[in-house]
Specification:
Layout: H1 9-22, H2 24-32, H3 39-53, H4 61-74, H5 78-91, H6 95-108, H7 111-133
Helix pairs in contact: 1-2, 1-3, 4-5, 4-6, 5-7, 6-7
């Protein structure tokens, strides 16, 4: 990405955390698809979301994962929710954890939001199971 921000300690830490949660391949794709238009956005999320929020030491990655999935589901951001459900294999959040998070979404954000998210999550689980059976990760 090559800007002055991409060499900051917070950016470097954020990139490492992002890779540990989403995987090297995801981060490589995001970086390969970055252009001058979205470069500032990628730097913002790498430093802010990953280098500050996810890099904090008060909550575990598992806890952050459950909260993130619940928030994304509650707000109706299903593509991002699916991405974080996939990433849960790297954070230690189990399917049972995710199920419990959806119960919280139903009560605190609404049954329709939870119902829609559960459909997406079940599809992600089916895809992940198929990949595992096929010998993938």
């Amino acid at each position: 990405m090559g800007s002055k921000n991409s060499s900051s300690p917070r950016y470097d830490q954020g990139r490492d955390v992002r890779k540990s949660v989403l995987g090297d391949a995801h981060v490589a794709r995001a970086e390969a698809n970055t252009d001058p238009f979205d470069q500032p956005f990628q730097e913002l999320i790498t430093e802010g979301a990953w280098g500050t929020v996810w890099a904090g030491d008060h909550w575990s990655k598992r806890e952050r994962s459950m909260v993130t999935i619940a928030l994304l589901a509650g707000l109706g951001h299903y593509d991002e929710c699916a991405m974080h459900v996939r990433a849960a294999k790297n954070t230690g959040a189990s399917r049972e954890d995710i199920r419990e998070a959806m119960l919280h979404v139903a009560i605190y954000a609404g049954v329709p939001a939870a119902n829609s998210a559960i459909k997406v999550i079940k599809e992600v689980f089916r895809e992940m199971d198929a990949e595992t059976q096929a010998g993938g990760n």
